[in-house]
Amino acid sequence: MHPADPVAQTDPAARPTGATPPAGRSRAGRPPAALLVPAAVAAVFALLPLGYLAIRSLEHGPAFAWGVIADERTAQLLGRSLGLAAVVVAACLVLGVSLAWLTVRTALPGARAWSVLVTLPLAVPSYVAGFAWLSAFPALAGFAGAAVALTLVSFPYVYLPVTAALRGTDPAQEEVSRSLGHGPLKTFLRVTLPQLRPAAAGGAVLVALYVFSDFGAVSLMRYDTFTRGIYTSYRASFDRTPAAALSVVLVVMTIALVAAEARSRGRAGHARTGTGTARPAIPLALGRWRLPALAWCAVVTGTAVLTPLATCGYWLAVGNSATWEPDTLADTAATTLGVAAAGAALTTLLALPVAVIAARHRGRTATLLEHSAYAGHALPGITVALSLVFFAVRYAEPIYQELPLLVCAYAVLFLPVAVAGTRAAVLQSPPVLEDVARSLGRSPLKVLREVTVPLAAPGVAAGAALTFVVCMKELPATLLLRPTGMDTLATRLWTETGTGSFAAAAPYAAALILLAAVPSYLLGRHRT
Amino acid sequence: MTDLHVTGLSKAYGPGAPVLDGLDLTVPQGALAAVLGPSGCGKTTLLRIIAGFLRSDAGTLTIGGRTISGPGVHLPPEQRRIGIVPQEGALFPHLSVARNVAFGLPGADRSTRQRRTEEMLELVGLSGYGDRMPHELSGGQQQRVALARALAPEPALVLLDEPFNALDSALRTGVRADVRAALQATGATALLVTHDQQEALSTADLVAVVRGGRVVQCDTPHEVYRRPADPWVAAFVGDAVLVAGTADHNNVETALGRIPLTAPTGELRQGVVVLRPEQLHLVDPDAAEAGGTVTDVRFYGHDAMVTVAVDGIDEAIAVRVPGQAAARPGERMGIEVTGEATLHAAAM
Fold this sequence. Notes:
The complex is a heterodimer of chains A (about 525) and B (about 350). Chain A has 25 helices and no strands. By secondary structure, chain A is mainly α. Chain A has 2 domains: about 30-55 and about 320-528, MetI-like fold (Orthogonal Bundle); about 70-270, Orthogonal Bundle (MetI-like fold). Chain B is globular. Chain B has 2 domains: about 5-225, P-loop containing nucleotide triphosphate hydrolases (Rossmann fold, 3-Layer(aba) Sandwich), CATH 3.40.50; about 240-345, CATH 2.40.50.140. Chain B contains 8 helices and 21 strands. Chain B has helices at about 45-50, 95-100, 110-125, 140-150, 170-185, 195-205, 220-225, 230-235; strands at about 5-10, 20-25, 30-35, 60-65, 65-70, 75, 80-85, 155-160, 190-195, 205-210, 215-220, 240-250, 250-255, 255-260, 270-275, 280-285, 290-300, 305-310, 315-320, 330-335, 340-345. Chains A and B meet through helix 21 and helix 22 of A and strand 7 of B.
């Protein structure tokens, strides 16, 4: 898990389990070997770090590993991570559900514009938010700062599924409740809210996952959670087994959450079946609550979106040529583009066979491959980076602290993003087209080349663009694996903010915000 | 020779009742056969097995004497020379109309391919549409391009999977006639899968009625309608009037009078007699030996359906009357029967 792409995670098609295969038809036959072999390579690749982490943490024997895990310090970190997650989740639920209801069900002036504005914070990387709040209010450093920064970037994870659930529920049910004598508030509490619970729970799990795996915001706010503890432990000692043991605990925590997420999503699906085509609800008139409602939306989106922008603007204005260093900025930007392009290319290449098999062939092999590819979804960036360090030091010394290792880390981390995008793109074209092509004399591989891939191309390209942008924004794995002396926009921002040079950090923050806007724009275009 | 023989075809998805249960079907060369059945009867499974997208559990398929599927044999779809026209056409959205039609033509000679494509488009009445993209065509035009695409490589057999379903009823009749004409012009053997009995009766040379994974009757449309294999088939292919009867040589005695049988019934004496509502006529109560009280009149425009509670029969029977019905509920009417009837064992 990583502060990656919001859309890939909230899109139902991004789901490895429980997703419905192509409508109705069973796709008989095993996938052709030409697909199966590269897909298997991708799956093994995705699982390798996880397996190696387990081996490495037990290197000094289970007793040593248990010693690290049972340590008082570990319990402390665990408590801090859980506490932060609890506060952020609660805040996100309040913000997400209230804004969803206001924008979907009420006659809020400018509801459409609000519904776009409210999702913008997703595009802000957590460490940019961390930079913004820390540089504006240095006193926030610590728990409060981490909680504020994380809440304001992750509440859309609740907002989006709840909005979808609200749109999906049949307004006729609410009308029935009203006709049976319940007022609007009672109807909301007794009829609407219970139906939103699965969606809100799913969103809450995503937020918790985000908090657990976040490295940027907590480390800038100097609040010690698991991820920061792992990083410190790795930097502090030549013996990397303690860091590995801590990573295992973090991985177990995130896997438990991913499992919870899958379950809550499964239930959400059931809750929504049978609603049929819901007629749009008649928006509720707000009356004298109009102004407070508007103010609430304005305050939330204002703090979440405007604070980072305004802070950047302020520090850019304050900074001078000495702090600006346009040459370094240009160099860093070019490096970032190059690394991210390599990462996106490798990721997309690995994702294609897995995605086609996942979309077009049902069966145990397909499920196994797809689940393996989604391992990165459950792994915090820092643990993937650590496991690749271990692996490289042992078996691939020449690429340790070299570019290829970093590119591999991106591929492991963002394979789920690329697989989800590609799979959705393949699913969009009806399988009957492939049947027709077969009946007209094409072999399975030719069908893939002439029909499946050309039809999915726009979606695959969008997925690749998305992967490219999340690679550019990646922080923890880049910090650990980058070649000595290499910097990306994210690592520069992190270093400058860490030393309190806010004016020097601002250009990098601005560049990252601009970048983050790209996928939103692309996805928006792709959908319309 | 491109006649299709299906023998003992079986298919089950997991345990439970099989979808196809020893299905036999023969379609002579050049014929258009309709596979007619309710949803879930296995007709789509049959089509997918013939096309090669699914493997059967047992049974053989031969086309023109060549076994394409059987014990130890399973030709992949691309080697079967079977064209398919799916529901809603399924044109390749990224290719122009001409390139869609040319998709199945062997790659060798460009000018030959071009000529064949134009020929096919002309056949389906769409010459000059080659440069259009699929989304620029209407539903009916897309369906005709899909047919041209299937026919272009001169397949041994063409499968049509409820191809007229997505079209609105006004368009359907026209496209149906065009498809029939195009198939006849090429002399292709074709199998049309449908659940619409009107479509099957009006389009096909042969109708195979499928129930529970077997063909229960395969005959010309006229025979299937006139001489259904059993009362279920009778009711499935059209409106049926069922009354009890006792056979007496070439006639059957019923509460509606004595009716000639289409064929001698052999051993069967007592059973159910199947008539069509248009075989019954309302007459003056005194002019006929059978009669009853009108209970309901439903007007359909070109005809009307009059429900009559006949003396001596428990269930009311339907009488089709051309134009406006000259009967009102509560009125007494005599009933006369014309034409022949079939007699079936009562167990159905």
